[in-house]
């Protein structure tokens, strides 16, 4: 269990991020087309940008930044994962002209629990804490970072 800070208050998460070198948990998330997508659907290196909602300024900024960075790294899939409905994610990316990243919704999924990022208390309880998990081509966690604020 990790402790993050939200609005100056400590908040616990439901568990721990996958350990470096461990097999990243598979998932089934909902993409922009409303189709289920799994970790194995993406080839090569995967960067999981996990956050509570696209409607927060910091989270929106992270999606913009990852989109810009993705352009210089062919063969890397950037997966932006939040509880936002696919409609909201698609609307945001369309309005921002973001086409280098994939958005996936955790609704109908136990992703937040499986990755240990579900906030267990506070105003955003049930949503994902901000984290980045890099998954190598073999499906192992290569780098993990939970954002403390």
Walkthrough of the structure:
The chain has 149 residues and is α+β, with helices and mostly antiparallel strands. The chain is built from three helices and nine strands; from the N terminus they run E-E-E-E-E-H-E-H-E-H-E-E. The strands form two sheets. A seven-stranded mixed sheet has the order 4-3-7-6-5-8-9, covered by helices on one side. Strands 1-2 form a two-stranded antiparallel ribbon. Helix 2 links the parallel strand 6 (76-82) and strand 7 (102-105). The protein has a single domain, classed as 3-Layer(aba) Sandwich (Glutaredoxin).
* SSE sequence, one letter per element: EEEEEHEHEHEE
Distance between the termini: 16 Å
Strand fraction equals 25-35%
Helix content: 10-25%
Unreliable segments of 5+ consecutive residues: none
Let me know the CATH homologous superfamily.
Glutaredoxin
Number of helices: 3
By helix and strand content, what is the structural category?
A: alpha+beta
| Integer count of domains | 1
Number of strands: 9
Q: What Rg, in angstroms, do the CA atoms define?
A: 14 Å
Largest sheet: 7 strands, mixed
- Give the averaged pLDDT, no decimals: 92
Tell me which CATH architecture applies here.
3-Layer(aba) Sandwich
Task: Show the helix and strand layout.
Elements: E1 3-6, E2 9-12, E3 28-31, E4 36-38, E5 45-50, H1 57-70, E6 76-82, H2 86-96, E7 102-105, H3 111-114, E8 131-135, E9 141-146
Parallel strand pairs: 5-6, 6-7
Antiparallel strand pairs: 1-2, 3-4, 3-7, 5-8, 8-9
